[in-house]
Amino acid sequence: MSSMKKPNPAQRKKARKLALQALYQWHVAEQPVTQIEAEFLADNNMEKVDQEYFSEVLRGVPRSKSELDGYIGKHTDRKVEEMTPIELAILRMGTYEFIHRIDVPYKVIINEGVELSKTFGANEAHRFVNGVLDKLAQELRITEVKS
Question: What mean pLDDT comes out for the span 108-125?
Answer without folding.
Answer: 95
